[in-house]
Specification:
The protein contains two helices and four strands; from the N terminus they run E-H-E-E-H-E. Strand 2 and strand 3 form a beta hairpin. 21% of the residues are buried.
């Protein structure tokens, strides 16, 4: 799995951080998503998929082929 985030779309809701804190964080100054791991280990994939699914801005993109 390969993750990319669109910082321009991110609204800073923070759901991704709550669901997968090992993979996502937020900038202190504005709450915009920070990607900590763009290719997380398999045991994190379920949480990452959930985080992408609940993102209100659809700012998290997953490539399941990589």
């Amino acid at each position: 799995m390969k993750i990319t985030v669109d910082e321009e779309k991110c609204c800073g809701a923070g759901q991704c951080v709550l669901i997968a804190p090992e993979v996502f964080d937020q900038r202190d100054e504005d709450g915009i998503v920070v990607l900590l791991a763009d290719a997380p280990p398999a045991e994190r994939h379920t949480a990452v998929r959930e985080a992408a699914g609940v993102c209100p801005a659809a700012a998290i993109h997953l490539d399941e082929t990589g």
